[in-house]
Request: fold
Amino acid sequence: MTTGTKVFLGILGAAAAGVMIGLLIAPEKGSETRKRIAKTTGDWADQVGNFLNRTREQYDELKNKARNMKSSAEERVSRMQEDLG
Reply:
């Protein structure tokens, strides 16, 4: 896990804790507070899932680009060796 990922997860965790504390001390009925917590948690889970999916897609794209660049470079080196040989 990279440092950036750790920082992101730390900030996300701190924000979640802050929201939950805010909801728990808000002057509402317990049932309303539980509904809001459940909704907020569900929304955040969706957002994190979407973020992870986008990150995975970007990673896959970069990996494919790197493979293509490697193949291209290998072909060029091979052609240069043939021209020199």
